[in-house]
Write a structure and sequence with these properties.
The complex is a heterotrimer. By secondary structure, chain B is mostly helical. Helices cover about 75% and strands about 0% of the residues of chain B. Chain B has eleven helices and two strands, in the order H-H-H-H-E-E-H-H-H-H-H-H-H. Classes of the chains: A mainly alpha, B mainly alpha, C alpha/beta. The structure holds adenosine-5'-triphosphate (ATP) and magnesium ion. Magnesium ion binds next to helix 1 of chain C.
Chain lengths: ~325, ~290, ~240
């Protein structure tokens, strides 16, 4: 094993950390800043992954596209389409209490999954879409990985900076004001559903971006790549563990959770094949458990948002009695 | 004959599925009115119930119906324990955190089922269940039992809520938790009781889903959305609403097969849900809470 | 007369800030004690503190010789104190009779004697037994709320603004019923907006300002005390 290929595994991990970083920052905009519970992250991820795949793969007779467009166009298209599909979803649910958004986003992700599996002309159904171009894909493996890491790292960095600017801007302050005290913000004349919709759509575009980066990394996408619950869950834990509302915390959460998750995979790979199935689902059980542990012992996260007590504070004396507006 | 075909292919399966959704939706509505959050683990609790009945049946034998009461008690207590471990500490925090936690609990229950019973499809009893013919209508014995037991459950529950002291305490707490506390009603006991009732309902929903279709680890997750849609359609917080909502969703799902491909059957309840939220978010029976 | 409920120097609030800054009060058997004071003075907060709905940071509450500081509402009800909050004081989706039944939740067995007693105190409710209480009038609601709290035969009844929003006729009726209740041996501690009327009909009164009790005395004394009248009762 030469020096360079010793880097392969860490680089591979790091690429995924960058991709999950985009998804987690997207969720942080929705949950951390605006308090919106999106349980259908995988749906937006899939929209992003399939959009860029259709746009950039080479032409196939029995399928829409591919259009052979350049990768940046594909990624941009993925972000835009994810934002566009987020609009009706948000428009319908954001008037109600948070649970409704959770329910509808779960439904949305399920419908996306059905479309992905059934519409051969669009998504290639079970075989998915292949021959999606990969930036720097014709370099030797290790260099290609490192180059792709540089690309995703750069994109994540830009996304981080932009969202960080947003969050300290008046827009970010208003979002947090709405999240923490909806009544007072409404009394100040803020158009709450509209602001929430903005945050929801912005978050969705970042999730689409994550999906697109994933598709280009794998040179394609199949329905199995978007197991709805696991992807959504990992990201939830990353955000809550890291510290919802704090982008740096969220990125820390991404690193920790992804490293634990991958390490557990390395470990279960050592187990005999007879219990491979148990091992696989045992890991999934652990994700669920991890979420519970974080909610119980560290609900504000490792790097809490400054003043986040406002958010997780005890609200016994003023139970939320949200009503239809 | 046109009507008989309609009834045999769509109405009867629709009503049977509808009654399963109804039992589930009543559970959703109870959790929502008393604990004030949406229980996203509901479907997976039903799966767990269905598989525990399977385990009991293969241990004891005779008839799957015979082990159902035992399975419901198991799931009832499991719900109380789950609440106690995972939800209780979130009680005084924003309710959305409990909703998030319940999604995680669902994932955990599902993976437990997958670890213990695997991911393959099974059934309580193999072999063909020959339908009876009554006036040209084809009904299976499982379907008759499903309808009978569901109806009995609903009647018992309504009587319990309106006649029994603890049932009334559940309604009181749903109406005003603070005043219930002031009246000397032990909120924690009411919460535990509610979870037990919800567990029983969940287990029955899962069992009847299993007996009318098949058992698999995703079965409960797959009925979560139609079940919640039924509860919202009927008006959250309303037992009679959940009942009607369940039947309507069941019928719509089956009838949708006339116009859309079978792969999208699952999407029809989602469309109904969106329409309800758009047109009448309080549901048919004017939800008391939203 | 010896006090059955003694509140000694209690402090506390909803957040870190104290709303109650050392409040002391006494209620004896068979008397009506009024708490009056401006809006936001902490009147309702005192009631919540006594009833265990608010953690207090200092002082003590003694009931019939037992220290009940920090007890849960459940236990306080059992001990013999019942409370009618200012808002949300009936189960609007349950019938009148069911409301009363919930008031007696801690008591098992036959409730018919208790129902008879309550319907005797509040004859207006008799014809409404099976009516869903959300459809009652304001005065009837208030009566039901008091009836609910009396189902367990409490020794002390806490009433938070029982006459808020009621017409003078209903107010007089509620006061009269309160006297009848007192005459059965129940001590009543009530908060009132209508300070003058309340002091006139109570045995004693406390005037609460900014979380401390500034004045206390018999209702008549407070009404005739010039400085009190000028400052708090609008001359
Ligand atoms: N649930 C609560 N959480 C936080 N602060 C509260 C709460 N309830 C009351 N307060 C504050 O406590 C203070 C005292 O309130 P309280 O309700 O005791 O006043 P009050 O004397 O009963 O007034 P009113 O005559 O208007 O009923 C007020 O400043 C109020 O803002
Ligand atoms: Mg008050």
């Amino acid at each position: 094993m030469d020096i360079i290929s010793a880097f392969n595994y860490p680089v591979y991990l790091a690429i995924f950390i960058c991709i999950y970083g985009c998804l987690a920052i997207g969720l942080n905009v929705q949950w951390g800043f605006a308090g919106l519970f999106n349980a259908g992250i995988a749906g937006f991820f899939a929209v992003g992954a399939y959009t860029t795949s259709i746009l950039t793969s080479s032409d196939l007779p029995d399928r829409l596209g591919g259009f052979d467009l350049p990768v940046p166009v594909g990624i941009l298209g993925a972000m835009i389409l994810s934002g566009i599909v987020a609009w009706p979803v948000g428009k319908i649910c954001l008037r109600f209490r948070g649970d409704y958004l959770a329910i509808v986003t779960i439904g949305f992700a399920e419908v996306v999954r059905l479309v992905v599996r059934s519409e051969h002309w669009l998504t290639g159904s079970t075989s998915g879409i292949s021959n999606v171009p990969r930036p720097f894909g014709n370099l030797p493996y290790t260099q290609a990985q490192i180059a792709y890491l540089a690309l995703t790292g750069g994109i994540l960095f830009v996304a981080y900076l932009l969202i960080e600017c947003q969050s300290v801007s008046p827009w970010g302050r208003i979002m947090r004001a709405i999240r923490d005290n909806e009544g007072a913000a409404a009394a100040m004349g803020k158009n709450i559903p509209f602001r929430r919709l903005q945050a929801f759509i912005l978050g969705a575009t970042l999730m689409g971006l994550g999906g697109a980066l994933y598709a280009h990394l794998n040179r394609g996408v199949t329905p199995d790549a978007i197991d709805p619950m696991i992807a959504s869950f990992l990201i939830w834990i990353m955000v809550i563990l890291g510290g919802s509302g704090n982008n740096r915390g969220v990125l820390l959460g991404v690193m920790i959770v992804w490293i634990i998750w991958s390490a557990s995979e390395l470990m279960t790979d050592q187990l005999p094949t007879e219990i491979a199935l148990q091992a696989k689902y045992g890991r999934i059980f652990l994700i669920g458990l991890m979420l519970q542990i974080v909610l119980r012992f560290r609900p504000e996260g490792l790097l809490p948002e400054p003043l986040s007590e406002l958010r997780i504070r005890e609200n016994k004396d003023s139970p939320p009695r949200d009503t239809v507006s | 004959m046109m009507f008989l075909d309609l009834a045999n292919f769509y109405l009867i399966p629709g009503i049977v599925m509808g009654s399963i959704y109804a039992i589930g939706a009543i559970g959703i509505t109870l959790v929502f009115s008393i604990m004030r959050h949406t229980n996203l683990a509901h479907g997976d609790m039903a799966t767990f119930g269905a598989f525990s009945a399977l385990a009991l049946f293969s241990a004891i034998g005779i008839s799957p119906y015979l082990v159902l009461p035992l399975a419901t008690v198991i799931v009832g207590f499991l719900s109380i324990v789950i609440d106690w471990i995972f939800y209780e500490h979130l009680r005084n925090k924003p309710k959305i955190l409990t909703t998030i936690s319940s999604l995680g609990v669902g994932l955990m229950l599902r993976s437990v089922v997958q670890i213990i019973w695997g991911v393959n499809t099974t059934a309580y009893v193999t072999g063909i269940n020959k339908p009876y013919k009554i006036l040209g209508l084809k009904v299976k014995s499982t379907e008759i039992i499903t309808l009978g037991v569901s109806a009995a459950l609903v009647i018992i529950l309504i009587l319990f809520l309106n006649r029994n002291r603890w049932g009334k305490a559940m309604r009181a707490m749903s109406n005003s938790p603070d005043l219930a506390l002031i009246s000397g009603i032990d909120n924690r006991k009411v919460v535990a009781l509610t979870w037990f009732v919800v567990g029983v309902l969940c287990c029955c929903a899962g069992f009847f889903l299993g007996i009318n279709t098949e058992l698999k680890s995703m079965m409960g997750w797959n009925i979560l959305l139609p079940t919640i849609a039924a509860a919202i359609l009927g008006g959250i917080g309303r037992i009679e609403g959940a009942l009607v909502g369940g039947l309507i969703i069941g019928l719509i799902e089956e009838m949708s097969l006339m116009v859309i491909p079978a792969e999208y059957k699952a999407a029809s309840s989602f469309v109904v849900l969106l329409l309800v939220l758009l047109l009448r978010p309080t549901g048919f029976f004017r939800s008391k809470i939203i | 007369m010896t006090a059955i409920l003694t509140i000694k120097d209690i402090r506390g609030g909803y957040t870190e800030a104290d709303i109650l800054n050392g409040i002391s009060m006494e209620v004896s058997r068979g008397e009506i004690v009024a708490i009056v004071g401006p809006n936001g003075a902490g009147k309702s907060t005192v009631m919540k503190a006594v009833f265990g709905l608010l953690k207090i940071r200092g002082g003590s509450i003694d009931f019939l010789g037992t220290d009940i500081t920090g007890w849960s509402p459940n236990h306080i009800v059992q001990a013999g104190i019942c409370y009618v909050p200012q808002v949300e004081n009936i189960f609007t989706e349950m019938t009148v009779q069911e409301n009363l039944e919930m008031g007696a939740f801690l008591r098992r067995g036959d409730l018919s004697a208790a129902y008879d007693r309550i319907y005797g105190l509040f004859p207006d409710l008799v014809s409404k037994r099976q009516v869903v209480s959300g459809s009652l009038s304001g005065g009837q609601r208030q009566m039901l709320a008091m009836g609910r709290a009396l189902m367990l035969d409490p020794k002390v009844l806490l009433l938070d603004e029982p006459t808020a929003g009621l017409s003078p006729k209903y107010m007089e009726q509620i006061f009269q019923i309160s006297r009848n209740i007192r005459d059965t041996g129940v001590a009543i501690l009530l908060v009132e907006q209508h300070a003058k009327q309340a002091l006139a009909f109570s045995d004693r009164g406390y005037i609460l300002v900014a979380g401390t009790n500034r004045h206390h005395g018999t209702g008549q004394d407070l009404l005739t005390d010039h400085s009190v009248a000028e400052m708090f009762l609008g001359g």
